[in-house]
Amino acid sequence: MPVSAGQDPSVVTVLHDGDTPPGLESRTDGTRLRLASTADELAAALPGSDVLLTWDFTSDAVRQVWSAELTGDLRWVHTASAGVDRVAFPELLASPVTLTNSRGVFDRPMAEFVLGAVVAFAKDTARSLALQREHTWQHRETETVAGKVVTVVGSGPIGHAIAHLLDAVGTTVRLVGRRAADGVHAFDELPGLLPDTDYLVLAAPLTDATRGMLHAGTIARLPERARVVNVGRGPLIVQDDLVEALRGGRIAGAALDVFEVEPLPADSPLWAMENVLISPHMSGDVVGWKDMLVELFVDNLTRYRDGRELRNVVDKERGYVSSSGGQA
After folding, report:
1. Residue 322 has what pLDDT?
2. Pair (254, 167) in one structural domain
3. Which of 7, 193, 223, 293 yields a CA-CA distance of 20 to 30 A from 55?
4. What is the pLDDT at residue 1?
5. pLDDT digits (tens, 9 = 90+) for 232-271
6. Which residue segment(s) compose the domain that 28 sits in?
7. Which of 50, 64, 95, 102 is nearest to 81 (CA)?
8. Shared-domain flag, residues 189 and 302
9. Do 179 and 75 lie in a common domain?
10. Which residues are annotated as catalytic?
11. DSSP label at 21?
């Protein structure tokens, strides 16, 4: 259903971190923009705004200031991220405000990132770089990628993009979603898929069902050769359990782009582990990604002002976009 009909002009509040959406003002003719970078500024800007763009999708400011008094005019919240966990708090979910996300922008970049992690593990790239720094010539044998079994948790567009690329290099990919569908295993089938998994890729949204899904018990079902790749959300993993498994050789390695606490604290044992690849929540951030985010928002803003259906409307009960394009 359309959010409304004929919202012209609109008042859009943009929550940012000092890095504002590139070119947004020039592409939103007839729209009044209010910029806020702190919770106090957001509280001052929200009254009278009918649209909120959370450009800074790592901020908790929306949750901090949300109240009926400040958000009474708000009709639509859009987050510049695929995940909505920062804005999917009970008060917003219970409100009539429509929530949309930036699904579609990150699919291919994140799939390429996962493919890169799989290849890096198979070809022992981290060790090669360490030996290069030491000026050490040490011949080794490496693994093939073809024939490996990859279990991807998250069967939305990102999961499907990951499966497409990994299938192209000869792996056997099994997608896991909320429920069974054509070519997709149900989430409750996951324990039975783990014992022969070479790479476990987490690309699921953070929901009550997925929070802490990888813990000591599920790790114990993985073979010792398994590697974990997390490009979803940090809290999908019980991090202390993963650290212990890596220390004890219970699994072979992990490529982690997201963490329970971000930035990853300097004293985290993960930093010093030779079998861990760490990246700072950047798996989907390729050259031009901010322009793509703006393009998506502007398209939705045009739809909103015309009273048309918005793209990427989040199902508030499920916590992700559940319309066409595959389950999350």
Report:
1. 80
2. yes
3. 7
4. 46
5. 999 999 999 999 999 999 999 999 999 999 999 999 999 9
6. 11-105+287-306
7. 102
8. no
9. no
10. 233, 262, 281
11. P
In this prediction, residue 29 carries a pLDDT of: 82
Residues 152 and 298 in one domain: no
C-alpha to C-alpha distance for 175 and 188, rounded to whole angstroms:
12
Contacts of 9 by beta carbon, 8 Å cutoff, 6+ apart: 30, 31, 32
Q: What is the pLDDT of residue 159?
A: 98
Q: What is the CATH number of the domain that holds 202?
A: 3.40.50.720
Helical segments of 169-317, H only: 190-193, 216-219, 239-247, 289-306
What is the Cα gyration radius of the chain? 21
Query: Do residues 227 and 140 share a domain?
Result: yes
pTM: 0.93
Is the same domain home to 174 and 41? no
Q: How many domains does the chain have?
A: 2
Kindly state whether residues 138 and 43 are assigned to the same domain.
Answer: no
Long-range contact set of residues 187-195: C-beta below 8 Å, sequence gap at least 24: 187/153, 190/151, 190/153, 190/218, 191/218, 191/221, 193/151, 194/151, 194/218, 194/221, 194/222, 194/226, 195/221, 195/222, 195/223
- For residue range 61-88, list pLDDT tens digits in order: 999 999 999 999 999 999 999 999 999 9
For residues 269 and 114, give the distance between their C-alpha atoms in angstroms, rounded to a whole number. Answer: 23
Using CA atoms, how far residue 127 sits from 98, 142, 274, in Å, is 48, 11, 8
Burial 244-257 (b: 16+ CB within 10 A, else e): ebbeeebbbbbbbb
Spans in the chain with pLDDT lower than 50: 1, 5-7, 324-328
In a domain, 328, yes or no: no
Residue type, 140: R
Does 291 reside within a domain? yes
